[in-house]
Amino acid sequence: LIGICFVYVVEQREQPHLRGQPTTVVQYNSWKGGGLIVVSYEACKYGVKRSMRGDEAKQVCPQIQLVQVLVARGKADLSIYRNAGSEVVSILARKGRCERASIDEVYLDLTDAAEAMLAETPLESLEKIDEEALKSHILSLNEDGSDHKGNVKEWLHRSDADHHDKLLACGALIVAELRMQVLKETEFTCSAGITHNKVGSSVQFRCLSFILHHLMEGKLSSFAYAGQTSKWKQLGGKLGSSLQIDLGVNTVGELLQFSEEKLQERYGVNTGTWLWNIARGISGEEVEGRLLPNSHGSRKTVPGPRALKKIASVEHWLNELCEELSEYLHSDLEQNKRIAHTLTLHARAFKSSDSESQKNFPSKSCPLRYGSTKIKEDALNLFQAGLCEFLGSHRIKAQGSHYNGWGITSLSVTASKIVAIPSGTCSIMKYFHGQDQSNCSSKQANDRFVAEAAPLSPSGTERYSELHTTELPIEFRD
DNA sequence: CATTTAGATACC
DNA sequence: GGTATCTAA
What we know:
By secondary structure, the protein is an alpha+beta fold.
Protein backbone atom coordinates (compact mmCIF):
# COMPACT_ATOMS: atom_id res chain seq x y z
CA LEU A 1 0.00 0.00 0.00
CA ILE A 2 1.40 3.32 -1.05
CA GLY A 3 -0.12 6.57 0.07
CA ILE A 4 0.42 10.26 -0.02
CA CYS A 5 -0.90 12.34 2.80
CA PHE A 6 -3.15 15.35 2.19
CA VAL A 7 -1.13 17.52 4.45
CA TYR A 8 2.03 16.87 2.48
CA VAL A 9 0.40 17.79 -0.77
CA VAL A 10 -0.31 21.21 0.61
CA GLU A 11 2.96 21.47 2.40
CA GLN A 12 5.31 20.46 -0.28
CA ARG A 13 3.85 21.95 -3.35
CA GLU A 14 1.42 24.64 -2.35
CA GLN A 15 2.86 26.02 0.88
CA PRO A 16 6.48 24.93 1.30
CA HIS A 17 6.93 27.03 4.43
CA LEU A 18 4.84 24.49 6.31
CA ARG A 19 7.48 21.83 5.88
CA GLY A 20 8.50 20.31 9.18
CA GLN A 21 5.77 22.20 11.07
CA PRO A 22 3.03 20.48 13.02
CA THR A 23 0.23 20.87 10.52
CA THR A 24 -3.31 19.70 10.05
CA VAL A 25 -5.86 20.07 7.28
CA VAL A 26 -9.36 21.07 8.38
CA GLN A 27 -12.55 21.40 6.47
CA TYR A 28 -14.42 24.57 7.38
CA ASN A 29 -13.40 26.44 10.48
CA SER A 30 -16.26 28.54 11.68
CA TRP A 31 -17.47 26.01 14.23
CA LYS A 32 -14.82 25.05 16.79
CA GLY A 33 -12.09 25.52 14.26
CA GLY A 34 -13.33 22.98 11.72
CA GLY A 35 -13.01 19.21 11.48
CA LEU A 36 -9.58 17.66 11.04
CA ILE A 37 -9.21 15.37 8.07
CA VAL A 38 -5.51 14.70 8.40
CA VAL A 39 -2.71 15.29 10.87
CA SER A 40 0.99 15.55 10.06
CA TYR A 41 3.53 13.35 11.82
CA GLU A 42 4.89 16.38 13.65
CA ALA A 43 1.40 17.24 14.92
CA CYS A 44 0.82 13.62 16.01
CA LYS A 45 3.72 13.99 18.38
CA TYR A 46 1.81 16.66 20.25
CA GLY A 47 -1.17 14.37 20.63
CA VAL A 48 -3.27 15.95 17.92
CA LYS A 49 -5.91 13.43 16.80
CA ARG A 50 -8.01 13.33 13.69
CA SER A 51 -11.16 13.15 15.78
CA MET A 52 -10.51 16.62 17.19
CA ARG A 53 -11.82 19.96 16.06
CA GLY A 54 -9.39 22.69 15.08
CA ASP A 55 -9.80 24.45 18.43
CA GLU A 56 -8.94 21.32 20.39
CA ALA A 57 -5.89 20.79 18.24
CA LYS A 58 -4.77 24.32 19.10
CA GLN A 59 -5.17 23.61 22.78
CA VAL A 60 -2.99 20.53 22.56
CA CYS A 61 -0.50 22.16 20.21
CA PRO A 62 -0.69 25.96 20.20
CA GLN A 63 1.76 26.39 17.33
CA ILE A 64 -0.15 24.05 15.02
CA GLN A 65 -0.76 25.24 11.49
CA LEU A 66 -4.36 24.81 10.40
CA VAL A 67 -4.68 24.56 6.65
CA GLN A 68 -8.21 24.85 5.32
CA VAL A 69 -9.61 22.65 2.60
CA LEU A 70 -10.53 24.73 -0.40
CA VAL A 71 -14.18 25.72 -0.41
CA ALA A 72 -15.85 25.80 -3.81
CA ARG A 73 -19.56 26.23 -4.39
CA GLY A 74 -20.08 26.50 -0.66
CA LYS A 75 -18.69 23.06 0.11
CA ALA A 76 -15.37 21.40 0.82
CA ASP A 77 -13.64 20.58 -2.43
CA LEU A 78 -11.15 17.74 -2.24
CA SER A 79 -10.21 17.89 -5.91
CA ILE A 80 -6.61 18.92 -5.39
CA TYR A 81 -6.02 15.86 -3.24
CA ARG A 82 -7.81 13.57 -5.65
CA ASN A 83 -5.78 14.96 -8.52
CA ALA A 84 -2.58 14.62 -6.55
CA GLY A 85 -3.51 10.98 -6.02
CA SER A 86 -3.99 10.53 -9.75
CA GLU A 87 -0.59 11.95 -10.53
CA VAL A 88 1.01 9.47 -8.18
CA VAL A 89 -1.02 6.52 -9.47
CA SER A 90 0.07 7.16 -13.03
CA ILE A 91 3.69 6.82 -11.96
CA LEU A 92 3.18 3.73 -9.79
CA ALA A 93 1.21 1.98 -12.50
CA ARG A 94 4.36 1.72 -14.60
CA LYS A 95 5.72 -0.90 -12.22
CA GLY A 96 2.78 -3.18 -11.61
CA ARG A 97 -0.91 -3.74 -11.19
CA CYS A 98 -2.48 -0.81 -9.32
CA GLU A 99 -5.67 -0.54 -7.34
CA ARG A 100 -6.85 2.84 -6.23
CA ALA A 101 -7.94 2.17 -2.67
CA SER A 102 -8.99 5.68 -1.70
CA ILE A 103 -8.55 9.27 -2.68
CA ASP A 104 -4.84 9.12 -1.86
CA GLU A 105 -3.92 5.46 -1.41
CA VAL A 106 -2.96 2.78 -3.88
CA TYR A 107 -2.28 -0.93 -3.68
CA LEU A 108 0.50 -1.94 -6.03
CA ASP A 109 1.31 -5.56 -6.86
CA LEU A 110 5.04 -5.73 -7.43
CA THR A 111 5.31 -9.52 -7.64
CA ASP A 112 6.26 -9.60 -11.30
CA ALA A 113 8.65 -6.70 -11.08
CA ALA A 114 10.32 -8.25 -8.03
CA GLU A 115 10.61 -11.67 -9.68
CA ALA A 116 12.13 -10.07 -12.75
CA MET A 117 14.61 -8.14 -10.65
CA LEU A 118 15.62 -11.22 -8.73
CA ALA A 119 16.09 -13.25 -11.88
CA GLU A 120 18.41 -10.62 -13.27
CA THR A 121 20.55 -9.81 -10.24
CA PRO A 122 20.84 -12.03 -7.17
CA LEU A 123 20.55 -9.74 -4.16
CA GLU A 124 23.80 -10.89 -2.59
CA SER A 125 25.72 -9.61 -5.54
CA LEU A 126 23.98 -6.27 -5.53
CA GLU A 127 26.78 -3.75 -5.23
CA LYS A 128 25.12 -0.49 -4.47
CA ILE A 129 21.89 0.02 -2.61
CA ASP A 130 20.33 3.40 -2.82
CA GLU A 131 20.21 5.59 0.27
CA GLU A 132 16.46 5.79 -0.13
CA ALA A 133 16.04 2.04 0.32
CA LEU A 134 18.18 2.15 3.45
CA LYS A 135 15.58 4.37 5.08
CA SER A 136 13.24 1.37 5.15
CA HIS A 137 11.91 0.07 8.43
CA ILE A 138 11.90 -3.69 8.66
CA LEU A 139 9.56 -5.05 11.28
CA SER A 140 11.64 -8.08 12.15
CA LEU A 141 14.65 -5.90 12.87
CA ASN A 142 15.17 -4.50 16.28
CA GLU A 143 15.24 -0.77 15.80
CA ASP A 144 17.26 0.38 18.75
CA GLY A 145 18.92 3.15 16.87
CA SER A 146 22.25 1.43 16.34
CA ASP A 147 23.40 1.67 12.75
CA HIS A 148 19.94 1.50 11.27
CA LYS A 149 21.08 1.76 7.68
CA GLY A 150 23.75 -0.86 8.20
CA ASN A 151 21.18 -3.27 9.56
CA VAL A 152 18.85 -2.65 6.68
CA LYS A 153 21.65 -3.16 4.20
CA GLU A 154 22.53 -6.45 5.82
CA TRP A 155 18.89 -7.56 5.78
CA LEU A 156 18.48 -6.70 2.13
CA HIS A 157 21.66 -8.60 1.22
CA ARG A 158 21.06 -11.65 3.35
CA SER A 159 21.78 -14.78 1.38
CA ASP A 160 19.99 -17.17 3.74
CA ALA A 161 16.62 -15.57 3.06
CA ASP A 162 13.93 -17.67 1.44
CA HIS A 163 12.56 -16.74 -1.92
CA HIS A 164 9.61 -14.84 -0.49
CA ASP A 165 11.75 -12.63 1.66
CA LYS A 166 14.06 -11.95 -1.23
CA LEU A 167 11.06 -10.83 -3.22
CA LEU A 168 10.18 -8.56 -0.34
CA ALA A 169 13.66 -7.07 -0.39
CA CYS A 170 13.30 -6.45 -4.13
CA GLY A 171 9.92 -4.86 -3.41
CA ALA A 172 11.60 -2.49 -0.98
CA LEU A 173 14.19 -1.54 -3.58
CA ILE A 174 11.57 -0.96 -6.25
CA VAL A 175 9.42 1.10 -3.92
CA ALA A 176 12.41 3.22 -2.95
CA GLU A 177 12.95 3.86 -6.64
CA LEU A 178 9.29 4.72 -7.12
CA ARG A 179 9.22 7.08 -4.18
CA MET A 180 12.14 8.98 -5.67
CA GLN A 181 10.48 9.03 -9.05
CA VAL A 182 7.26 10.35 -7.53
CA LEU A 183 9.17 13.06 -5.71
CA LYS A 184 10.98 14.02 -8.88
CA GLU A 185 7.89 14.19 -11.05
CA THR A 186 5.33 15.54 -8.59
CA GLU A 187 7.20 16.97 -5.59
CA PHE A 188 5.13 14.72 -3.32
CA THR A 189 6.64 12.40 -0.77
CA CYS A 190 4.78 9.20 -0.16
CA SER A 191 4.88 6.36 2.32
CA ALA A 192 4.58 2.67 1.65
CA GLY A 193 3.98 -0.56 3.52
CA ILE A 194 5.42 -3.60 1.78
CA THR A 195 4.47 -7.19 2.54
CA HIS A 196 3.61 -10.47 0.93
CA ASN A 197 -0.05 -9.61 0.66
CA LYS A 198 -2.60 -6.88 0.57
CA VAL A 199 -3.83 -7.03 4.15
CA GLY A 200 -0.32 -6.97 5.55
CA SER A 201 0.71 -3.98 3.50
CA SER A 202 -2.00 -1.80 4.94
CA VAL A 203 -1.03 -2.78 8.47
CA GLN A 204 2.52 -1.83 7.69
CA PHE A 205 1.42 1.38 6.12
CA ARG A 206 -0.33 2.42 9.32
CA CYS A 207 2.57 1.10 11.29
CA LEU A 208 4.84 3.45 9.43
CA SER A 209 3.29 6.60 10.77
CA PHE A 210 3.59 5.12 14.20
CA ILE A 211 7.20 4.17 13.66
CA LEU A 212 8.09 7.58 12.40
CA HIS A 213 7.22 9.32 15.60
CA HIS A 214 7.09 6.80 18.41
CA LEU A 215 9.46 3.96 17.83
CA MET A 216 12.50 6.17 18.11
CA GLU A 217 11.34 7.07 21.58
CA GLY A 218 11.14 3.40 22.44
CA LYS A 219 7.57 3.48 23.73
CA LEU A 220 6.33 0.32 22.09
CA SER A 221 7.77 -2.12 19.63
CA SER A 222 6.61 -2.00 16.06
CA PHE A 223 5.59 -5.64 16.40
CA ALA A 224 3.29 -4.81 19.26
CA TYR A 225 1.79 -1.98 17.27
CA ALA A 226 1.27 -4.06 14.16
CA GLY A 227 -0.34 -6.76 16.26
CA GLN A 228 -3.26 -4.59 17.33
CA THR A 229 -6.30 -5.83 15.45
CA SER A 230 -7.73 -2.33 15.15
CA LYS A 231 -4.81 -1.37 12.90
CA TRP A 232 -5.64 -4.06 10.39
CA LYS A 233 -7.40 -3.41 7.16
CA GLN A 234 -11.17 -3.75 7.64
CA LEU A 235 -10.83 -3.95 11.40
CA GLY A 236 -10.71 -0.26 12.14
CA GLY A 237 -14.48 -0.07 12.46
CA LYS A 238 -17.33 -2.07 13.90
CA LEU A 239 -15.95 -5.51 13.17
CA GLY A 240 -12.75 -4.60 14.99
CA SER A 241 -14.71 -3.24 17.97
CA SER A 242 -16.80 -6.37 18.08
CA LEU A 243 -13.67 -8.52 18.23
CA GLN A 244 -12.51 -6.44 21.15
CA ILE A 245 -15.79 -6.20 23.04
CA ASP A 246 -17.42 -9.54 22.29
CA LEU A 247 -14.39 -11.80 22.10
CA GLY A 248 -11.92 -9.78 24.15
CA VAL A 249 -9.45 -9.90 21.27
CA ASN A 250 -7.08 -6.95 21.08
CA THR A 251 -4.23 -8.43 19.10
CA VAL A 252 -3.97 -10.68 16.13
CA GLY A 253 -2.17 -13.17 18.35
CA GLU A 254 -5.22 -13.49 20.57
CA LEU A 255 -7.34 -14.15 17.53
CA LEU A 256 -5.36 -17.34 16.85
CA GLN A 257 -7.02 -19.21 19.73
CA PHE A 258 -10.43 -19.21 18.04
CA SER A 259 -11.35 -22.03 15.71
CA GLU A 260 -12.56 -21.26 12.23
CA GLU A 261 -15.96 -22.70 13.21
CA LYS A 262 -16.24 -20.45 16.22
CA LEU A 263 -15.48 -17.36 14.17
CA GLN A 264 -17.91 -18.44 11.46
CA GLU A 265 -20.59 -19.01 14.05
CA ARG A 266 -20.26 -15.46 15.28
CA TYR A 267 -19.43 -13.55 12.13
CA GLY A 268 -20.82 -15.68 9.33
CA VAL A 269 -19.07 -18.11 7.02
CA ASN A 270 -17.21 -15.61 4.88
CA THR A 271 -16.10 -13.15 7.53
CA GLY A 272 -15.27 -15.98 9.93
CA THR A 273 -12.97 -17.68 7.46
CA TRP A 274 -11.48 -14.36 6.48
CA LEU A 275 -10.65 -13.58 10.12
CA TRP A 276 -9.19 -17.04 10.70
CA ASN A 277 -6.96 -16.58 7.68
CA ILE A 278 -5.69 -13.10 8.32
CA ALA A 279 -4.78 -14.07 11.87
CA ARG A 280 -2.39 -16.50 10.19
CA GLY A 281 -1.13 -14.01 7.69
CA ILE A 282 -3.14 -15.56 4.89
CA SER A 283 -4.83 -13.18 2.51
CA GLY A 284 -6.20 -14.32 -0.80
CA GLU A 285 -7.17 -10.82 -1.79
CA GLU A 286 -5.84 -9.88 -5.17
CA VAL A 287 -4.82 -6.37 -6.02
CA GLU A 288 -7.54 -5.33 -8.45
CA GLY A 289 -6.39 -3.64 -11.59
CA ARG A 290 -8.42 -0.51 -11.02
CA LEU A 291 -6.78 2.81 -11.62
CA LEU A 292 -9.96 4.81 -11.74
CA PRO A 293 -12.96 5.05 -9.41
CA ASN A 294 -16.23 3.28 -10.22
CA SER A 295 -18.29 6.26 -9.24
CA HIS A 296 -18.07 9.98 -8.65
CA GLY A 297 -20.09 11.77 -6.05
CA SER A 298 -20.66 15.06 -4.37
CA ARG A 299 -22.28 15.26 -0.96
CA LYS A 300 -23.28 18.03 1.40
CA THR A 301 -24.25 17.49 5.01
CA VAL A 302 -25.61 20.22 7.20
CA PRO A 303 -26.02 20.05 10.98
CA GLY A 304 -29.55 19.33 12.17
CA PRO A 305 -30.35 22.82 13.33
CA ARG A 306 -29.40 24.18 9.94
CA ALA A 307 -31.48 21.63 8.05
CA LEU A 308 -32.80 22.95 4.77
CA LYS A 309 -36.44 23.84 5.16
CA LYS A 310 -37.17 25.56 1.92
CA ILE A 311 -37.29 23.96 -1.45
CA ALA A 312 -35.31 26.93 -2.72
CA SER A 313 -32.36 26.02 -0.48
CA VAL A 314 -32.55 22.39 -1.52
CA GLU A 315 -32.49 23.56 -5.10
CA HIS A 316 -29.55 25.80 -4.41
CA TRP A 317 -27.46 23.01 -2.88
CA LEU A 318 -28.50 20.51 -5.51
CA ASN A 319 -27.26 22.93 -8.13
CA GLU A 320 -23.93 23.33 -6.37
CA LEU A 321 -23.52 19.56 -6.03
CA CYS A 322 -24.45 18.96 -9.64
CA GLU A 323 -22.02 21.63 -10.75
CA GLU A 324 -19.23 19.86 -8.91
CA LEU A 325 -20.27 16.45 -10.17
CA SER A 326 -20.45 17.76 -13.70
CA GLU A 327 -16.90 19.01 -13.36
CA TYR A 328 -15.70 15.55 -12.29
CA LEU A 329 -17.54 13.96 -15.18
CA HIS A 330 -16.05 16.44 -17.58
CA SER A 331 -12.51 15.69 -16.37
CA ASP A 332 -13.13 11.98 -16.51
CA LEU A 333 -14.39 12.28 -20.07
CA GLU A 334 -11.47 14.42 -21.10
CA GLN A 335 -8.74 12.51 -19.32
CA ASN A 336 -10.00 8.95 -19.44
CA LYS A 337 -12.57 8.97 -22.19
CA ARG A 338 -15.17 7.50 -19.86
CA ILE A 339 -18.87 8.14 -19.66
CA ALA A 340 -21.17 7.69 -16.68
CA HIS A 341 -24.61 6.31 -17.37
CA THR A 342 -26.53 6.59 -14.11
CA LEU A 343 -27.34 9.53 -11.89
CA THR A 344 -28.43 8.77 -8.33
CA LEU A 345 -29.69 11.12 -5.68
CA HIS A 346 -29.65 10.48 -1.94
CA ALA A 347 -31.25 12.69 0.64
CA ARG A 348 -31.66 12.55 4.38
CA ALA A 349 -34.30 14.30 6.42
CA PHE A 350 -34.36 15.29 10.04
CA LYS A 351 -37.04 16.40 12.46
CA SER A 352 -35.79 19.07 14.81
CA SER A 353 -38.03 17.98 17.67
CA ASP A 354 -36.42 14.56 17.78
CA SER A 355 -32.68 14.11 17.37
CA GLU A 356 -33.08 10.40 16.66
CA SER A 357 -35.26 10.92 13.64
CA GLN A 358 -32.71 11.04 10.87
CA LYS A 359 -34.37 9.32 7.94
CA ASN A 360 -33.07 8.62 4.49
CA PHE A 361 -35.25 9.36 1.53
CA PRO A 362 -35.69 6.55 -0.92
CA SER A 363 -32.75 7.04 -3.28
CA LYS A 364 -33.66 7.64 -6.89
CA SER A 365 -31.79 7.07 -10.11
CA CYS A 366 -32.21 7.96 -13.75
CA PRO A 367 -30.14 7.84 -16.91
CA LEU A 368 -27.42 10.44 -16.70
CA ARG A 369 -27.55 13.17 -19.31
CA TYR A 370 -24.39 15.21 -19.73
CA GLY A 371 -24.35 18.94 -19.21
CA SER A 372 -24.65 20.54 -15.79
CA THR A 373 -28.00 22.10 -16.63
CA LYS A 374 -29.48 18.72 -17.47
CA ILE A 375 -27.95 17.11 -14.42
CA LYS A 376 -29.43 19.81 -12.20
CA GLU A 377 -32.81 19.37 -13.80
CA ASP A 378 -32.74 15.60 -13.41
CA ALA A 379 -31.44 15.76 -9.86
CA LEU A 380 -34.23 18.09 -8.85
CA ASN A 381 -36.78 15.75 -10.38
CA LEU A 382 -35.27 12.82 -8.52
CA PHE A 383 -35.44 14.80 -5.32
CA GLN A 384 -39.09 15.59 -5.91
CA ALA A 385 -39.85 11.93 -6.55
CA GLY A 386 -38.04 10.86 -3.39
CA LEU A 387 -39.69 13.57 -1.36
CA CYS A 388 -43.19 12.59 -2.43
CA GLU A 389 -42.62 8.99 -1.40
CA PHE A 390 -40.98 10.08 1.80
CA LEU A 391 -43.85 12.34 2.82
CA GLY A 392 -46.33 9.64 1.92
CA SER A 393 -44.61 6.89 3.86
CA HIS A 394 -44.19 9.04 6.96
CA ARG A 395 -47.74 10.34 6.78
CA ILE A 396 -46.46 13.85 6.89
CA LYS A 397 -49.26 16.09 5.93
CA ALA A 398 -48.87 19.39 4.25
CA GLN A 399 -50.50 21.72 6.70
CA GLY A 400 -50.50 24.84 4.61
CA SER A 401 -47.14 24.01 3.08
CA HIS A 402 -45.72 23.41 6.54
CA TYR A 403 -43.93 20.20 7.38
CA ASN A 404 -43.74 20.03 11.15
CA GLY A 405 -40.08 20.78 11.55
CA TRP A 406 -38.80 18.36 8.96
CA GLY A 407 -35.73 19.52 7.04
CA ILE A 408 -33.05 18.14 4.77
CA THR A 409 -29.72 17.42 6.44
CA SER A 410 -27.90 15.64 3.66
CA LEU A 411 -27.96 15.71 -0.11
CA SER A 412 -25.79 13.74 -2.46
CA VAL A 413 -25.53 13.15 -6.16
CA THR A 414 -23.61 10.19 -7.55
CA ALA A 415 -22.63 9.26 -11.07
CA SER A 416 -22.08 5.55 -11.64
CA LYS A 417 -21.95 2.89 -14.36
CA ILE A 418 -18.92 4.59 -15.74
CA VAL A 419 -17.63 2.92 -18.87
CA ALA A 420 -14.84 3.64 -21.30
CA ILE A 421 -15.83 4.90 -24.70
CA PRO A 422 -14.91 2.03 -27.00
CA SER A 423 -11.55 2.73 -28.58
CA GLY A 424 -11.85 3.41 -32.25
CA THR A 425 -14.83 5.68 -31.80
CA CYS A 426 -13.80 8.42 -34.16
CA SER A 427 -15.49 11.24 -32.34
CA ILE A 428 -16.92 11.62 -28.91
CA MET A 429 -19.84 13.59 -30.30
CA LYS A 430 -20.67 10.77 -32.62
CA TYR A 431 -20.53 8.35 -29.70
CA PHE A 432 -22.91 10.44 -27.65
CA HIS A 433 -25.23 10.68 -30.61
CA GLY A 434 -25.14 6.96 -31.21
CA GLN A 435 -25.82 6.18 -27.55
CA ASP A 436 -28.81 8.42 -27.43
CA GLN A 437 -30.46 6.84 -30.41
CA SER A 438 -30.93 3.76 -28.37
CA ASN A 439 -32.06 5.06 -25.02
CA CYS A 440 -33.46 8.53 -25.32
CA SER A 441 -37.14 9.21 -25.35
CA SER A 442 -38.47 10.72 -28.54
CA LYS A 443 -39.58 14.02 -27.08
CA GLN A 444 -35.97 14.95 -26.47
CA ALA A 445 -34.92 14.25 -30.03
CA ASN A 446 -35.00 17.86 -31.23
CA ASP A 447 -32.48 19.38 -28.91
CA ARG A 448 -30.48 16.26 -28.31
CA PHE A 449 -27.42 17.13 -30.24
CA VAL A 450 -27.12 20.64 -28.92
CA ALA A 451 -27.74 19.49 -25.37
CA GLU A 452 -25.12 16.80 -25.46
CA ALA A 453 -22.62 19.29 -26.78
CA ALA A 454 -22.83 21.19 -23.53
CA PRO A 455 -20.30 19.21 -21.51
CA LEU A 456 -17.71 19.68 -24.18
CA SER A 457 -18.07 23.42 -24.35
CA PRO A 458 -15.64 25.51 -22.35
CA SER A 459 -16.82 25.98 -18.79
CA GLY A 460 -18.66 29.20 -18.18
CA THR A 461 -20.57 29.10 -21.40
CA GLU A 462 -23.44 27.13 -19.96
CA ARG A 463 -26.53 28.87 -18.71
CA TYR A 464 -28.93 27.86 -16.04
CA SER A 465 -32.20 26.85 -17.47
CA GLU A 466 -35.06 28.46 -15.68
CA LEU A 467 -36.24 26.25 -12.88
CA HIS A 468 -39.95 26.04 -12.72
CA THR A 469 -40.39 26.52 -9.03
CA THR A 470 -44.04 27.21 -9.39
CA GLU A 471 -44.59 23.72 -10.70
CA LEU A 472 -43.04 22.03 -7.69
CA PRO A 473 -45.64 20.04 -5.82
CA ILE A 474 -44.03 20.56 -2.44
CA GLU A 475 -42.75 23.54 -0.63
CA PHE A 476 -40.99 23.76 2.68
CA ARG A 477 -41.64 26.75 4.88
CA ASP A 478 -39.95 27.87 8.06
C1' DC B 1 -26.78 23.24 17.17
C1' DA B 2 -22.23 19.74 14.86
C1' DT B 3 -17.63 15.47 11.57
C1' DT B 4 -17.74 15.73 6.74
C1' DT B 5 -16.78 13.76 2.48
C1' DA B 6 -15.89 9.97 -0.48
C1' DG B 7 -16.36 5.59 -2.12
C1' DA B 8 -17.19 0.40 -2.03
C1' DT B 9 -20.09 -3.54 -1.43
C1' DA B 10 -23.60 -6.94 -0.11
C1' DC B 11 -28.12 -8.01 -0.58
C1' DC B 12 -32.95 -7.82 -2.24
C1' DG C 1 -32.74 0.00 -9.28
C1' DG C 2 -32.75 0.67 -4.54
C1' DT C 3 -31.39 0.02 0.50
C1' DA C 4 -28.37 -0.31 4.13
C1' DT C 5 -24.01 -0.53 5.95
C1' DC C 6 -19.18 -0.21 6.24
C1' DT C 7 -14.58 1.81 6.09
C1' DA C 8 -11.43 5.36 6.21
C1' DA C 9 -8.93 9.95 5.46
